[in-house]
Amino acid sequence: MKKVLKDKLNILIIFISIFLILLCFNRSLWGDEAWTAIIMKYDFKEMIREIGQDVHPPLYFVLLKLIVTLFGQHIEIMKIMSVIPTIILMAIGKKYIKHIFKSDFIAGVFICLVGLMPSCMHMSVELRMYSWSILFVTWSAFLGCEIYLHGQRKDKLLFTLSGILAAYTHNFNIISEIFVYMILFIALLVKDKKYIKDILIISLITILGYLPWLFISFKQVMNVNNDFWLWSVNFTDIAQMLIYPFNSLCHNEIPNLFVLIFIGLPLLMTSLLFIVVLKTTINNHFKNQKANFVLLCYIPMYGLMMFGVVYGLLIRPIFVARYLHSTIGIFFLGLAVGISLIKKNSLKNVAIIILICNMIYGCFFNIQREYFNGTEDTLAFFEKAKKEYSTRTIVTDIFLLSTTVMPYYETQYTTYSNTVYSLEQSNQPIFYIADQKNDQSFLENMNAKKLYSGNIDNEYFFDIYLINNVEFSQKTIE
Questions:
Q1: pLDDT tens digits, residue range 165-177?
Q2: Helix (H, G, I), strand (E, B) or coil at 249
Q3: CA distance 59 to 38
Q4: What global pTM score does this model have?
Q5: Where are the bilayer-spanning segments (predicted)?
Q6: Which of 57, 229, 239, 259 has its CA 20 to 30 Å from the CA of residue 252?
């Protein structure tokens, strides 16, 4: 233990890990997280069938199911399950960076970026698969570097394994891995044509490894092409993708000017860094290996972004900013290496200060999101109101509240009904949860009594009404 604590990078990893774990002790969930928690209540066979009908591969859910089976269905435990891959990523990042670049500075910057940047911090405690995605895809990139430098069989096997694991974690990870594979294969062929055999073997094993889920994945893609909640690709969508690595806002929230400064400065800095490194690389006729590496690290994230936008314009919008998460570990690795190339200490310090400010902003917003988001107050209100008004019946016009969030908190309901409860049995007092963005005037004719204004997870903002003995029809809330 003393030996571990002598290494400052180990202390940094431990500190960040403790901070992330402390963000997990709350009951706040948004719609997709609630759906994840709900299907953990299913038996294994039913869970796999439900996943197959959704849009994601099964690996994360299988791992989470094992944890739930061992430790019980506690939100805190399930959230900590998402911290684990971030801790692993910081640890292997330190190992590979010190081996490849021989630099504690690059390793330290990388550890801070994947642990404390707003998007990474948020996804590290979200009850979803994104922290596992960034682990597997970034691991592939590290192994690709090892293969290029040393060509050991162990690294080739692990590279293939990481690619398969990534593909089984999120469908868009397949595109991320295609960029990683493509960069490695081109680099190997430029280095020596003898690597073509390794390229073919790695490609074949990867395809065979994913084959069991390939047809289900294809069916999922066809289903979302026919029916998905996105309807267009617009400037706001693209802007959210561009700021994603530095952003910590809720999913559809637009940043105000103050927040935009904290997000915009690191985006501007990374853009300028890319231009400077590109110029340096061209001037050196692509002989500066570190500069070449930085440029390559930009490709997976922006390549995936371009794929998502073009696919949305030509076929059907199915891509949102958070799907970039698998690639930002590679992007941050390139950023860490790029900062190390800055020769003027004053400019290097400015870059680091900009990133630290972004991390502080991320810490503030993520602490607020997890612990000061209105969820506990809203749940406490419901517990009190259900006793006071002798009803547990809830109806809402907010889709994800009705299909996942309230069904999780109110365990007598089931997921994916159009409303939280059957409106045909509405001849009793009910709580009506009305979206604050929607017209609520129709409630005036129903003797609705407004009881509470609240929100869950800083994502769903609503007013809660009590309605006594009013007959609804399904059409009423549609």
A1: 999 999 999 999 9
A2: coil
A3: 17
A4: 0.91
A5: 12-30, 66-93, 105-124, 130-149, 170-189, 195-216, 228-246, 258-281, 293-314, 320-342, 349-367
A6: 57
